[in-house]
Specification:
By secondary structure, the protein is an alpha+beta fold. It has 10 helices and 17 strands. The strands form 3 sheets. It has a 12-stranded mixed β-sheet with strand order 1-2-3-4-5-13-6-12-11-10-9-7, sandwiched between helices. It has a 3-stranded antiparallel β-sheet with strand order 14-15-16.
């Protein structure tokens, strides 16, 4: 099929920006009380426009795919990943093969990364491009009648914090990296996520008026009443936070809520990127005896080398065995950090 549509990025076609935000809000059935320009500021802000791709029928935007490059930092080395978001096609153009052309083109244009991430319920669609659901997400929704000591959290805006308080939030975020792996946040990343004003930050101070616990709840219409970032140290803090809505918890932090049973979901839909970068990422995390040799997306299989054996597996089984849910029992995960992507970082 011949497709004569043009692909540009928003840096090349800044006049298309308002069409893009309108199209995303229309195709996502966005509530009028929310704005994608706010909820997905890191993806759609001007600095990222070179990575926001539009599909054009003459001067009309009929599709958009945004790419946000981020890093995991392990032992002072950076491992690149790519988040895909704001993915849409004008409804009247759907079902005609244009998305396949557009999505494939954007993947080909993207820079080499270890892993691609996106968030969608259209699993069969994205499986055609090598994406599969993976990563373990634990969701706690506790009984409101539980007894615990209420904690003095106050609601504030991240972007309006005094500098010393902002730096303390950063410090608490980074202090968790020895037990669970968050995305690296540069000063630019922190500035960008602070513009997501649809998210609510709650802080607790100690007797010296220093912030010693926080949590972030809500983000646009997708994360309403969900706590998707937190730092707590005591059980009362954990219980207080878990009472504020659904709590998305890392497996590294379940000790404080060990008597409760979470619901387990897939956290994301992912694709193995550049094989060399992916293997570097695995080894940095502690998968020393595991190496990916090749990926066959047509056959939906991956060939790996593990403990002196060559093994072929379905891609879905391999990703779940490494990232969960359904970890491989033969791999000792004691020293492997849990990966937890906070809601402010997801797109």
């Amino acid at each position: 099929m011949s497709i004569n549509f043009e692909i540009k990025n928003l840096a090349e076609a800044p006049e298309c920006y308002s069409q893009v935000t309108s199209l995303i809000e229309k195709t996502f059935n966005y509530d009028k009380d929310f704005k994608v320009a706010i909820d997905f500021y890191p993806l759609l802000n001007t600095q990222n426009h070179p990575h926001c791709y539009v599909l054009l029928d003459e001067n009309k935007v009929i599709g958009h795919i945004g790419v946000k490059y981020r890093f995991f930092k392990i032992n002072n080395k950076f491992h690149p990943v790519a988040f895909l978001g704001g993915i849409c096609i004008e409804p009247s153009y759907q079902g005609k093969g244009y998305f396949n052309f557009f999505f494939t083109s954007v993947l080909q244009k993207s820079s080499p990364v270890a892993v691609y991430f996106l968030w969608s319920h259209l699993l069969r669609l994205y499986q055609n491009f090598g994406f599969y659901p993976a990563f373990e997400l634990l969701e706690y929704e506790l009984d409101a009648q539980l007894e615990f000591t209420p904690q003095p959290y106050e609601k504030v805006q991240l972007k309006k914090l005094e500098e010393k308080d902002f730096e303390q939030i950063k410090k608490l975020y980074e202090s968790q990296l020895n037990k669970k792996l968050h995305l690296y946040r540069s000063d630019t990343d922190w500035k960008e996520i602070s513009e997501i004003t649809s998210a609510s930050l709650f802080i607790k101070r100690n007797s010296h008026q220093v912030i010693d616990s926080y949590f972030i709840k809500n983000k646009g219409q997708d994360l309403t009443d969900i706590v998707h970032e937190y730092f707590f140290q005591t059980k009362d803090e954990a219980l207080h936070i878990a009472q504020q809505g659904k709590l998305w918890l890392s497996a590294a932090d379940t000790k404080r809520l060990s008597e409760f049973n979470p619901s387990i979901y897939y956290a994301s839909v992912i694709k193995i990127g550049d094989i060399k970068l992916y293997n570097n990422f695995l080894k940095a995390l502690g998968f020393q005896q595991l190496e990916v040799k090749s990926v066959n997306n047509a056959q939906q299989t991956v060939d790996i080398h593990f403990e002196n054996q060559d093994i072929s597996l379905p891609i879905q089984d391999f990703l779940n065995g490494i990232w969960g849910p359904g970890y491989f029992p033969d791999i000792n995960r004691e020293k492997i950090p849990n990966i937890y992507i906070c809601g402010l970082d997801s797109i």
